[in-house]
Amino acid sequence: MTRMTTASGIPVADNQNSLSAGPRGPLLLQDFHLIEKLQHFNRERIPERVVHAKGSGAYGTFTVTHDIRHFTTAKLFGAIGKQTETFLRFSTVGGEKGSADTERDPRGFALRFYTEEGNWDLVGNNTPVFFIKDPIKFPDFIHTQKRLPDSNLKSANMMFDFWSRAPESLHQVTILFSDRGTPDGYRHMDGFGSHTYSLINDAGERVYVKWHFKTRQGIRNLSSAVATRIAGTDPDHAQRDLFDAIAAGDFPQWDVKVQVATPQQLADWEARTGWNPFDLTKVWPHGDFPLQPVGVLELNRNPLNYHAEVEQAAFSPANVVPGMGYSPDKMLQGRLFAYHDAQLYRVGTNHQHLPVNAPRCPFHNQQRDGTMAINNGGAAPNYATIDAVGKGGTGMGHGEQELPLEGGAGRFDFRGQEDDYTQPGNLFRLMTDEAKQKLCDNLAGPLSQVTDEILERQLRQFDKADPGYGRGVRASLKRLGRNVD
């Protein structure tokens, strides 16, 4: 096999694991292979988004219903009843801009809060987990969901070759091939921040959080057959449903809730379960970390111009306001770089100047010139003086205390050493018999098209999650005429 190199011909030491400070991260900017890989991936399409290409958007409000100021100093969580303007973009993930809204796919749930302290972007999906836990594999994964380089066709063989070699993907695969993989429009699904984030209070104390948005319209999914039929009769089904509902005054709403844990609580939970709390392929069980109410999100205004307000909307999870922070989640760490970099390429150097992206509060910096310099700073200086001499440590900024790191820098591969099967097995065991049958039937369709080697590898993954899972998929495959042992 030809050895992999960077674009400059330098041999790649490890294409499986990002360079991190200790086994849990965070990641290091010196990992040029990761940076080059993500930068090239972000520039593969012109001008369509590489992922989340087809989407719908609407403006709305977030209203505080419960006081969480003991967790955070963020001003948008002020007195009960306080409202903040929002913009939410829904999307499919793998399909092109002209693809059908009802394809089997996760759904993007990208939410912007226009706060008085700047924009907060919470960029998630309609699922609480994802397929991978390290961003160095993201370009590879997305390529398997796109098209073959020779025929330009999508390939079940390619998808399951990746998934069958990545046991951490099984949790999300189980969700994707249930009816949750084909939601009935955007109003009838939940949203999740998915990653673990931080909240910081006025004492500088940090808690880790996961954000949940529970639809008030009720969960409604489509069967595989109905989703396929709608794809042929109304491929813009979700766009039409959202736009028409808001235009008619039927404003969709979501209850905003949060799971909260102190660093010590997460350490104790990990010691008990063996699960890394910052692993994006895992959930925090509600029995261990119950949902706490925060507020209500309502969408109540359609955009006036799709291109200007939806297509040019540019989100980044790096956008957090004072009183918030990140976590050692490796996928989040990669997205902190990749999203902003993608917007610089896709929309332009000054994409934050566009109305849908501009903060509603005043902003000042030394960024000047470039394309679309709508607000170019006038005659204000284009440099900042140095005035921090003798101030000592300043933490992470915004009153946030230093985030302790541990371990030597290296590439750490835990595949085969972590439990990637219990949580998808638990999900399977929670399903009704009818839901299990649908899951197995939905999986059998594409699996009937893959090679024997890939099929056997994927079936072993199902068996490890739950023996009934593997038996069910085998039975569905036999009904399709595919012989399996």
From TrEMBL:
Stretches for region Disordered: 1-20
Record GO cellular component, one term: cytoplasm
Residues engaged in binding heme: Y339
Superkingdom, taxonomy of origin: Bacteria
EC numbers, comma separated: 1.11.1.6
Molecular-function annotations in GO: catalase activity; heme binding; metal ion binding
Segments forming domain Catalase core: 5-390
Subunit structure: Homodimer.
UniProt protein name: Catalase
